[in-house]
Amino acid sequence: MKDAMNKSFHVGGSVEKALKGDVELQAVAVLQEAWKITARNILTFLPAVIGLFLAQIALLLLGLQVQLGNPAIFFDAVITGKELTQEIVQAGYMANFWSDVLSAPLYVGASLMALNHAVGLPSKPGHLIKGFPFTLVSIITMLLISSLQGIGNAIFPIIGLLLSMGFSMAIILVCEKRIAPIKAIKISLQATFKKFMPMTAIFLVVLIMFFVSFATAGIGLLWTIPFFFNVKAIIYRNMFGITLQVTSTKTKGNTSENNVLTGHVQSENEQQQPTSVLDNETDTTDSAPTPNKDHADDDENDNHQQGSGDTPQNDDTEKGGKVFNA
C-alpha cells in the first residue's frame, strides 16, 4: 500500500530578488556551467532541438508558400540578389515572424527541458511536446515579444537586440511561474537590465557562437542551439529560481528513504521521487522536480542553491527527474 505526499523545494533566486537586482550572475560562471551541462545532456537534448528547428523551417516554408505561391521564389531572390523586391523581403519577414510565433509551444518544451538540466536532472527528446499544454499562452507571449522586437528593429537594430535580451526570460516566466504574459515581459525586462553588464557579456558570447556556427555551414548549430537554451535556463534559475515538487511515496514495509533532491534521510519508511512539470502522475522510474506556479520559498529553503555554479546533486538524482509540468 502506498500513500503519496507532495513537498516543494526552491532552487536559485526569486522574482522579488531579481527585480531588486539582488542575485548573483557571473558571465564566465554561467557560460562554463552551460558548457558542462550541454555536454552532459547533448544526446537527449539535441533531437528535441532538431525537432524544434525542423518545425520552424516547415512553418517558414508554409508562410512563404501562402504569400508567394512558391518558397523557391524567395530563396532564389536571396541567393542571386536578382528580383529581390520589397514584396519578397516583406514575405520573408512575415513568414519568419509567424514561424517563431506558431512554434512557441515547442520552444517552451525545449526551455523546460533546459530547466531540468539547470537543476541537475535529465530529460528525454519526447519532452519537447510537453510545452503543448501552454499552447495558447505561449503563442500570445511570443506574439507580443516578436511584435515589440520588430518595432525595436524598425527604429534601430541595436534596440531590437537589446529587447531580445530583455524579453528572453518572459516565456519561461509565463509557463514556470504562471505569470500573465504582459507582466512576465515587464518582469523579464526589468530583471534583465538590473544585470545589464553580465547579461550583455553572456549574450554577446552566444551571438558570436551563432556567427561562427553559420560560418561552418550550420554544423556548429548542433552545439550552439542546445548551449543557448541551457544558458538561458541557468540565468533563469539564478535570477528567478525554480520550484521543484517532490512526491513522497510511503510504502508499507519499506524501511528506507532517499531524498533525491536534498540527499538527506528524513524517515524510515518513506521513499521520495521528484515528479515532473511535464507529467501529472508520479513516475517512479523517470520522475522529476517541477516548475510550480506556487513559487514562494518555503521552509525547505535552507537547501536552496543560488549562484552560477553547478547545482549539487546526489547519485539518485541521475536516476530520473524532470522539471516539467503538464
Work out the strand percent. Answer: 5-15%
Extract low-pLDDT stretches: 255-277, 279-322
Number of E-state strands: 3
Strands side by side in the biggest sheet: 1-2-3
N to C succession of SSEs = EHHHHHHHHHHHEE
User: Average pLDDT, to the nearest integer?
Assistant: 80
Count of individual helical segments:
11
Sheet bearing the most strands, described?
Answer: 3 strands, antiparallel
Q: Strand pairing plus helix content: what structural class? A: mainly alpha
Rg estimate, integer Å: 21 Å
Distance between the termini: 26 Å
Please estimate the helix content: 55-70%
Broad shape: globular
What does this entry look like structurally?
This protein has 326 residues and is mostly helical. It has helices at 15-20, 27-68, 71-80, 86-102, 104-118, 135-155, 157-166, 170-176, 181-194, 196-215, 221-240; strands at residues 2-11, 242-251, 270-274. It has a 3-stranded antiparallel beta sheet. The longest helix has 42 residues, at 27-68. Mean pLDDT is 80; it is low at 255-277 and 279-322.
